[in-house]
Automatic annotation (TrEMBL):
Keyword RNA-binding part of the UniProt annotation: yes
Function of the molecule: Required for a late step of 50S ribosomal subunit assembly. Has GTPase activity.
Protein name: Ribosome biogenesis GTPase A
Binding site for GTP: 58-61, 86-87, 130-135, 174
UniProt GO molecular function: GTP binding; GTPase activity; RNA binding
Signal peptide annotation: none
Family named by the database record: Belongs to the TRAFAC class YlqF/YawG GTPase family. MTG1 subfamily.
InterPro entries: G_CP_dom, GTP-bd, GTP-bd_ortho_bundle_sf, GTP-bd_ribosome_bgen, GTPase_MTG1, P-loop_NTPase
Amino acid sequence: MTIQWYPGHMAKAKRQMIEKIKQIDVVIELVDSRIPSSSRNPLVEEISSGKPRLLLMNKIDMADRQATKQWKEDFEDQGLTVHLVNSQTGQGVATIPDAVHKLTAARRKKLEKRGFRPHADRALILGIPNVGKSTLINRLAGKKIAKIGDRPGVTKAQQWIKVGSTMELLDTPGILWPKFEDPRVGLCLAATGAIKEELLDFQEIALFLLKTMLTHYREPLAERYTLEDLPELAGTEEDQDVLIRLFDDIGRKRGCLMSGGYIDYDRVSEIIVRDYRSQKLGPLTLEWP
Ligand code: G4P
C-alpha cells in the first residue's frame, strides 16, 4: 500500500526515525536495484546520525546485472558497504548478519576496552515504500511478521527478532518517503510501481520506458513486440514523432485499436508498463550511476 506524503507526514516520519535509530547500532538501507538512485531517500544520511550503514540492493532478479555491478562499484566508491539481495528467494540474505557484525567491530572493541560485554548487533531496515522491507524482514525472521501500513503515524509495539547468533533486528521497518521533486525520479518510481497507480499517467511512463529501451535495451524491446528495424533516437525534437510511431507499431501488433482504426494509446501504454513490471521485457534497470 502506498500513500501520498505530505509535509506533516514527512516531518513525523523523520522524527520517529531519529528516535528509533537511537536504539540501534547499524542502519540497513534498502533500495530497488532497478532504480538505485531514485529509490533512495536523500535524508538517509542525516537520519542515520553517523551510525554505520549497510546498503542492500534488493530485487537483483529484476535488474540488469551489468548495471547492478556498476551501481555497486559506484556506491562502494562513495564509501558504502553494499550487498546484493533477492529478498523474495533469499539470495544473498544469509550474509547480512556477518556484514552487520563487521560494521559494529569498532563499537565492540571500544566497549570491550572499557570492560563491557557488547550486546548483539541491533539493526533496523529502512527504505521507501515497496522496496521490499517487509519481505526482507520476513526472510531474516524466518516467519511472517505482520505488516504495518506505509503510514508514518501507524505504530505497533516493536519487537526485536533474533537473527543468527550476533544480530537483533527491529520487526518494524523505518518507512521513508520517496523523492518527489525531479520528474525523472517520479517516472522511475511510477514505472516500477513504487507510487500509486491513480497518481500516474500511463502514457508518460510508457514513453519513458520506450525511450530507455530504445537507448539501452533494444533487443528485448524488438523481441517482445516483434519489431523489425527499430528506430534510433537522435536527441532532437523529432524523437517525439519517432516514439509515437513506435507506439503505433506496438499498438497495431497488440490489436489496441479503437473504432475507426485509431490506436488506443491508453491500452498500449498500460500493456508496456505492465510488461515491464511483470518482467516480460526482461530484467531492466532504468538508471545508471
Ligand atoms: P515494503 O515493505 O518495502 O513496502 O515492500 P514489500 O516487502 O511489501 O515488497 C513489495 C513487493 O516487492 C512485493 O510484491 C514483494 O514480494 C516484492 N519483492 C520484495 N523483494 C523482492 C525481490 O528481491 N525480488 C522480487 N522479484 N520481488 C521482491 P507484491 O507483488 O507487492 O506482493 P506479493 O504479491 O509478493 O505479496
